[in-house]
Design brief:
Helix content is about 25%, strand content about 30%. It is α+β, with helices and mostly antiparallel strands and about 220 residues long. The protein has 2 domains: about 60 residues, no CATH class; about 150 residues, tt1808, chain A. The strands form 3 sheets. Strands 1-3-2-6-5-8 form a 6-stranded mixed β-sheet, with no helix packed on it.
């Protein structure tokens, strides 16, 4: 599960981040004099090669992804890039890259996509929301993607959320309805996952996992 790190008066021990890179520990140590919780600017100042999210004044350290996890994200992102070529201003990003969902919540989705019509919501430091987000489920972190982030992304108005489950070999697509996600459909091996938001964007489930496994 993700590790939450809080600033004083809750003590921060470097043992809490022993499994994370030395650079992260050093970077966090620069923020220890704060007593009111980490600020957004504190969070945005962390620019090392690690996965850290921001949740109401706390830093949330994400587990290190597996090779297969990264390969699935890479293959999926490339499918989005290929589909969106006619839209010169569309962009696809892979983690680690920050997305702001509200003033107190920044996440680093596995894959996020934004159409050109929303380019004004992008900056070099982070995006404000996204049009489509995909998360690849991790065995040690399943509830974080299927429950916590599902609720957060819906509350932030993300139009479409894809949950890719390597263990079940499924892709579940969720769309917004009255501020909450409803399951459009769960697609399995041998099926084609079709976006409701992005006209013509479709993913062959079998091909996605086969391509990812070949690269893992």
């Amino acid at each position: 599960m993700p590790t939450l790190i809080e600033s004083p008066p809750t003590p921060l021990s470097l043992s809490d981040v022993a499994s994370i890179s030395r650079q992260l520990a050093d970077d966090i140590s620069r923020l220890l004099l704060r007593t009111e919780g980490f600020s957004v600017e504190d969070y945005l100042s962390l620019d090392g090669p690690y996965l850290v999210e921001y949740l109401r004044g706390r830093l949330q350290i994400l587990p290190m992804p597996t090779a297969l996890h990264q390969a699935i994200a890479f293959v999926f992102a490339n499918l989005l890039v290929a589909w969106s070529k006619p839209d010169a201003l569309a962009r696809t990003k892979l983690a680690p890259f920050r997305v702001k969902f509200n003033d107190k919540l920044y996440r680093e989705p596995d894959v996020c996509f934004m159409r050109g019509i929303n380019a004004h919501r992008r900056s070099n430091r982070f995006w404000v929301g996204a049009d489509l987000i995909a998360e690849i489920v991790s065995d040690s972190n399943k509830a974080h993607d299927t429950q916590t982030k599902r609720a957060e992304y819906a509350a932030a108005g993300i139009p479409e959320y894809w949950i890719i489950d390597p263990e079940q070999r499924t892709i579940s697509i969720f769309t917004l309805a009255e501020g909450a996600y409803v399951l459009h459909e769960a697609f399995g091996v041998g099926q084609i996952a079709i976006s409701l938001l992005l006209d013509g964007f479709a993913v062959n489930v079998s091909d996605l996992f086969a391509a990812a496994e070949a690269q893992a």
